[in-house]
Every structure is written in structure tokens, then in C-alpha cells.
What we know:
Strand order of the largest sheet: 2-3-1-6-7
Largest sheet: 5 strands, mixed
Shape: elongated
Helix content: 55-70%
Low-confidence stretches: none
Mean pLDDT: 86
Strand content: 5-15%
Distance between the termini: 36 Å
Amino acid sequence: MDEFELDGTSTLRVKVLKGMSIGIGSLALLLSIGNVTIGQSYMLAFSELLYALYSWYLYKQIKNKTLKPWHKYIISAFITAIIVYGTSIEHAKWGIFVWTYVLPIIYYLLLGKKVGLIATIALFITQSSILFIILDPENRYYPVGIMINFTFSYLSVAAISHVYEANRFSTEQKLKSLATIDTLTQVNNRLALRHRFQELKKSQSPFYVMILDIDHFKRINDEFGHDAGDVVLTSVAKKIAELAGNANVYRQGGEEFCVILEQADRKYVMSVAEKIRQSVSHSSVPFEEHDIDITVSIGISDTVKQNCLVEANRRADANLYRAKNSGRNAIVACG
């Protein structure tokens, strides 16, 4: 699995925008032509034409991979404005308000559960008010029937959209957790680390890389068995997570761990590294009838001067080997 596959929500929203750009955009052009030739509603036709043009612009942005996050809000507001305006004018008799039922689905898919809920409620209040005003007051049953059917239909679509988005997001988070958590130590795995690196690359914020390796881990496996090795790995991971924060700890593989600390100064990073080193070396790991003494070696690099992920990782790894060669149970930092 690639790290980009973890962000299923963004991928889904791009696909929804792409489908809207082609499908609803093309349909908006046809409706624009119809409103000019048949309905004679030139303002509505002009709005639909603008929507079609903007939709095709969005499609081009998606194809060129230059789509901005705020585009989804603009396209949602644009189509909402057209439907609300179309409902409010006399041509509501053409049934333009029926498009209202589509909007909650679009809101939840494009904007997420929280913003989608707010937009759905706001639209319901707006459209209900407009329909109540424009429906024929002289017919006693006609407005009541329309309002009742509109209300229950709209709320049904909104409820289904809300439940779907909530469950979809929850399932995605569970799958993401399964894909990015090391099953043995319960800290982040190498895939999560690559994903974190991608986020850091985008943000360009300075950070420190700390690589930790359990000293003489092969000897522990050989002397006490692999089950003991697993207990040691779990114990060390827990200590690192307690002192550096679970979200910042990653198991790179074998007995090697990586810690990423953002927006931190050198003094703080060194203090965290020293606390980890002391915590591990001052407490043995109980296994069956044995108390296993362990230590860790730590290499540290920063990106304050050189914001290059590969180089920072390479330098931290080089410092780790320097710590190993200096006698282990040591910390070596850059600069």
C-alpha cells in the first residue's frame, strides 16, 4: 500500500468533483439553453452557463492536479445559489426545487459530516421558507401536501447521507489504523512514517529525526528466544511513546525505531533523547524467570538548516552508528 492511499477521503472528494464537473456541468449547459429558448428566464440561464464553465474549469484543474481545497466550497455554494434562486422565481412551477434533494448528498460527500450537516440544515430552512411563500395560498390542501412531502423526503435523504458519511469515515479511520500501526508494539509503522514525511515535505516546517536502536538485540533473541525479543520490543516502544508522544513514534523495522519531533529546539530534543536512554537503561524487562537488561543507542538529525527528508534521515542513521561505535547506550546528535 502506498502512503497516498491512506487519504481515501481526499481521493473520494476529488472523484466526486470530477463527476460533478462533467455530469452536472454538462447538464447545466443544457438547462441554460432550455431556460433561454423555452423558459425565457435569462438570469437563471446565465447562472447555469457560468456554473457549466466553472465546472469545466474544475475538471481541467483536476486533470492537471492543481485543484485547491477551497474549490469544493465554491462549487457547493454555486449550485446551491442556482437552485435557491430557481426555486424563488416564478419558474419554480417547473420543479427546480426538486434538485434540492440532491444537495445533501453533495454536501456530505464534498464537505464532510460537520460542514455537510450545517449546510443541509441551512438549505432546508431556506427552501422551506421559499416554498411556503410561493405556494398558492388559496388552495387549502395543495401547499400543505407539498410541504409535508418535501419535508419528509428531504429529511430522509439528509439522514441517509449523514449516516453514510459517518460510517464511511469511521470505517476509513479503522482501516487506516490497521494499515499504519505496528501490530506487535502498537506504535506507528514504516508506512505511517512515509506518510508523515510527505506531510512534512508539504508543510516545510523544521523538525528533528531521532533514530533509536536496541543494543545487542540479536544476543537477546539468541539467549532468551524470540518471544523475549518481542517483549523487549514492546517494552521499549512503550517507554519511547510515553516520553516522546505516541503519535511521534514509528517502528522502522526489527529493533529500530524513529521519532519525529516538529517545532522543537535542540535542547528539548536532547532532553527527550536522554530521558528515553535513561528510562530504558535503568529498568530491566521481566521475562519468565529472567530480568533482561537493555540499552538503546540514539542518533539525531535536524532539518532546521537543511530541510531535506532523505538527508535528515541519512544523517540521523549515521549518527546512530557513531553512537554504536562509541560503546552503545549513547546519544550522538548533529552539529
